[in-house]
């Protein structure tokens, strides 16, 4: 059906000029209202300007209503309420509604119009007829659907309905059974909650219960749709267009309901009209239960339906009229002190006076009411931090106040009553007992008063001279049911200009929105909101940014190595901003290759006897990472392996007669695998078969020889697609003398094939193409590039109207996109040329709150998104890398590590099949070769390369030379930051999204020291906000780490070692913090907050102090050797040596450069728990699970050069015994172990 509208309904005047509608320029209310005569389903609208004129509407809002009152604004899928209109008078602009609306009345509200003329409008409405069965529940009624039998047991249920209500609470559907099954659908504080239990409550209490809430602000007296679909334990719960998929627990699959299902409430058995819980007050339509039309049966008075109370079959309309205060600075409603009086506003009211109203808002602060009393007295009602504060100002210096209520900015309706009665002023909230100010608090002599004028909720500028000023933000929210002196205020009279005055006010509509639904905060970020915006709290999530999109963790151990880290435990996030959470792994950086180690719960050797194929031994392995995380880690790594140690005695792996597997393992996909070694999956083979050295060449495994002696079929599995091992099954140890011993080692991987995944573009018309960018609501793009060309497009993806592009022009990187609000362009200009053949970093991000662009360490550029604009980026073309679809402005040079929303695009592989593009990048600095160490930066030269050691604590040609300084008594070095430093953050914003390398709440500290004096201050970092971080030696010489991030709380203090480190030996300190998690070389610590060190002021080595114990250490300073000090990207010790006389570096006392660290290294070295540490093969993986392993990996070599003592002896438990056979983790079975005397008495070497 198409409804062509040439006429309109407008409460003011109607003007039809030459085929179209136009309002008078003096009209305060400008809208075109359409009456469709009955409720219909509207699917589309179209607009056109006024015929033969220069009048048209360029943008408009669309409102709808069932009864011509209580309007609601239509919003598109991306939450914007603005429809693009016409650009001329003749063209037709058609909009198909993303979700249809069922309504009788429509309003077209012009928001923008022709600059050449005025507002002119013709409209067409498209839709189809809509019929429904409606029931009205008055809050004391319900419908009972009674079954034909005593109980109904179902494995599949479908319940669908629409409802509308002005009450925030009430039961819509309820059914229960005697064994404890139940299903309840109820409104609770404006949300819809579904409670369901499918289990026997007596036998399994709470095991099958599940509750889920969906929707918000559903008490708005507008229709909302509900669909519940259940099949066995799986439930799909949909409210409007939001769906939650949930699964019940317990053992039961069926819902067993006795006698009846009730709609509208839960009647008390035997007492019709009495309800156990608050029942529903509102209307339902098209109510179906498993295909049965409940309302239709009730209307026809069928015996299956029993009606409790007064249920009618037409929907009553609301009587309350709402008003929306739009502006936090200029909205106000001015009313006379007594609306019932027809006299002037200044006549006043004496004796008694009261004002009541309902309000709802998300804002925590706002002015709700102002009343001028006699002389200079006035009465203010404020919303302050979610509480109500009533203040009576007797003069400029005398006042009294009451504070009541709490949590009133929760979006719910709250009722307020303010009363003045002689000597008493009182306020009540939500019908609670009133709180009053009595007697002297007001004035003993004040027996009567005059209310001069009354304002809800702000003050107009014209009243400033009467003392009406906004002490805080004006109220922004909804009000209704305004009653002054027991007389209801007719807001329609206010709208028509008959009563009072107003500004920035919408009447007969409540425009409140839940900006946290849907929740745009990612990775479990907590959403909070105000009237016009929302905020994401990312505390404790491991992510940062405006929508908690950006991971604060590195993606791999290799990436940690590039930041200058040493071996230890790290949180890594292999998919970055993707959906997977970070996981803790061990990174072994003692070799040229960086090994990542992931443990599991089955690290100890297991002896198996008595198992058979019918009753096999089964061991399930649970890893410290999920299988999804492991899959991503394996995909990212260059090489992975896992050792399965297997020794046997008269126990076969395969049946020697028919080859049937008797033992096997399951891969990460749960598939059975029967090979026991190698990187190519084979069938029924072991390592000895691959090496052709089995003890009996008639078999592929040593164990299959079935000998009485112990044999070995240990193998190294290295086929990544099958790793890790998730289950071991052993089935042939039930014969006399049969036994098997196995041990599954941790998963170990090295390399990161994405860090240097790259492509070279050497033709301007060449490009790589990938599938369309999937980035509707959030997108981050990061990559490195180097080039000699001044300009070119790095990346482009187009849609019908939307696009995204990142490109280079001379010394400028530009990030541009369009989501429907007009093109957005961010640029970063570099003071040095970007086509210098060196690597440069680019990161662009766009989300529903903001867009940002980062280039190298240049200041971040950002732009906030409009709070009510379009927010979905809709693309449909291919993603072009290094060029455009037009083959113009192509990029010439190299791009590497191109990451989009946590996924790295495989440029290397795609380049192999694309003309004009080659895989890899030429040059010395284009590979993973460690040319520059310890944070050193490789810089290409015409004939070779050099290492830039600016941000490294080391020096020398390859940033490997120790920088050591001897401190004497009173010596200190202070590095003062040039400006408030917040980890290289743009200081103009607190919530902007920063890329992981410069994320919030992150510090990396490393240095070495040698001393014999305690207490001692090693390092202190202080901020402009009186925060600090300190590393000290306590009185007993033990190491302490202090964090004071919140001055309102006690500092966090950690003591990694109890024994004294003031022993004249060289010790290495390595700390890194990510949010609340802090790691040293050996273990993890949990801080009380994830606050950042905000606006860092200075870093001091040696004498300093803040808290008492820190002050004691600081007063003593430090005497000894400090070596290779690193704090984030700063090397303060090296800066002190190289920049003597600089205003940034302050040196007190005698500072002497030395090689004390190098000399101590040559004699003997120990880290925090011994520089040489052995792995505990028994407990290694168990402790990874606990994220608190105290022993690090060490390749055992040249042990005779080192001395091990004290704590190391306790950690040397790497030897385990299997029937007299000794094994050390990392050594092959052919290696024999010998013992050697040392100062600890025993050393396995």
UniProtKB/TrEMBL annotation:
Coiled coil: none annotated. Residues 1-128 form the F5/8 type C domain. Disulfide bonds join 894-921. Its main location: membrane. It is a single-pass type I membrane protein. Residues 548-600 form the Fibrinogen C-terminal domain. InterPro entries: ConA-like_dom_sf, EGF, FA58C, Fibrinogen-like_C, Fibrinogen_a/b/g_C_dom, Galactose-bd-like_sf, Laminin_G, Neurexin-related_CASP. Pfam families: EGF (PF00008), F5_F8_type_C (PF00754), Laminin_G_1 (PF00054), Laminin_G_2 (PF02210). GO terms for cellular component: membrane. It is found in: Membrane. May play a role in the correct development and proper functioning of the peripheral and central nervous system and be involved in cell adhesion and intercellular communication. This is Contactin associated protein family member 5b. It comes from Pygocentrus nattereri.
